[in-house]
Amino acid sequence: MRLFEEAFEKCTMLDRQTVSDGMGGYKKQWVDGAMFEASIYKNNSLDAVVAEKQGVTEIYTVIVNKGIELDYHDVFRRVSDGLTYRVTSNIKDNETPQRASFQIGQVTAERWDLPSD
Predict the structure, then answer these.
(1) Domains, the chain, ranges and CATH?
(2) N or C: which end of the chain has fewer CB within 10 A?
């Protein structure tokens, strides 16, 4: 096991589905999707701290094994504490080259509370 893999935690993708409300209409709800593992750590740079003080949400870096597709605005939950995150970048912009000895991808994410519908 590589060092960065020791920091991996179980996560669950959250999928938004449209379901009948039983009265001829519909509602949207969040349901658990695929499980994956990721290393999630908070961006504590000076810029991020200043932005948080100005009302910007907390910013995180998320590292996953290459092949895990995290798309812009995907939502997932960390199993250990139930916190939810929304992806704010494109994983294809930050993956290791094919010849690297470890194959990972990285995205940024924000702490995000599921909207109540």
Answers:
(1) 3-111 (2.40.10.270)
(2) N
